[in-house]
Amino acid sequence: MGLMIDGIYRAEDPPPDSADDGTFKRQKATIRNWITRNGSSGFPAEAGRYHLYVAWNCPWAHRSLLARHFKGLDEIGLSVAKPRRTDQGWVFDADGEFSDPLMGVSALHEVYAADAQPYTGRVTVPVLWDKVANRAVSNESADIVRMLNDAFDGPDLAPRDLLDEIDGWNARIYRDVNNGVYRAGFARTQEAYDTAVAEVFAALDEIEAALADHRWLCGDRFTEADLRLFPTLARFDVAYHYAFKCNIRRLMDYPHLWAYAREIYQMPGVAGTVRFDIYKQGYFSPSELRNPLGIVPAGPVLDWDRPHGRG
Q1: Catalytic: 58?
Q2: Selected catalytic residue, list 53, 58, 240, 260
Q3: Does 112 qualify as catalytic in the annotation?
Q4: Pairing relation of β-strands 77-81 and 135-138?
Q5: In this predicted model, what pLDDT tens digit does every residue of 22-52 receive, in sequence order?
Q6: Do residues 87 and 2 lie in contact, with contact meaning Cβ atoms separated by under 8 Å?
Q7: What is the pLDDT of residues 184-221, one digit of tens each?
Q8: Neighbouring residues of 182: CB distance < 8 A, sequence distance ≥ 6
Q9: Domain boundary pick from 99, 130, 151
Q10: Among 53, 112, 119, 182, which one carries the catalytic annotation?
């Protein structure tokens, strides 16, 4: 993947993301600026000022794409990296779907290097870029989702009266579902895998039970909690079930959760943020530990357009 040190890219393997006991430890995002309505942060909520760097197969980038969509922020431009990384990390073509219309770079690390503040860390998506200040606002997807919601007009995905409940679901979903599948897939010992996979399915079982009584996680309103769960659900049967050994059950084995996921997918515009073919290319890319030959499976066959039957 490579990493930046003081603004200089090094095409070398960064330190491993695992502890001595074989558990996966995700590196924290370090660019944590914030867009505000009044601009007091130095990053004002101005139409057309921001640009988003993403990759279709990254679930964290998917969160930011969904926030952009639900808030109606089409004026935030997009650059989409190619599905498979190289020794240059996330890369772009010179033109076409996987090119960078903003800076015309060939690799995402060139965007990080363009920031006036030298960066040290992994080169990750998403990145929210300020075109006026020539600065990265944030590379933390949770922050991007919340700041786009709070700073710009449009549907409120985190209403104050539900905020405690939303934050509670977000913490549970992040720990045991969004990141939980990675803790299972990247585990380096049997014990670490056994613990992680059990926690993934305990959380999914809990969510299934909650959806038996409620349309959405926080009742009758679609919120940020639902938005943050969906990217993992969209990738579950085509990638995590196989590539990450999260195979106790499939998403389609959960009646309420599978119908809930289809309802979100069938909301206007959401399908445009989903690329099942690219998910498989990314998660089944060559990996010495998980997929040495890089063979991409043909299945499974899933009908996300089937009526969800939730009213």
Answers
A1: yes
A2: 58
A3: no
A4: unpaired
A5: 787 777 888 999 999 999 999 999 989 999 9
A6: yes
A7: 999 999 999 999 999 999 999 999 999 999 999 999 99
A8: 24, 26, 244
A9: 151
A10: 182
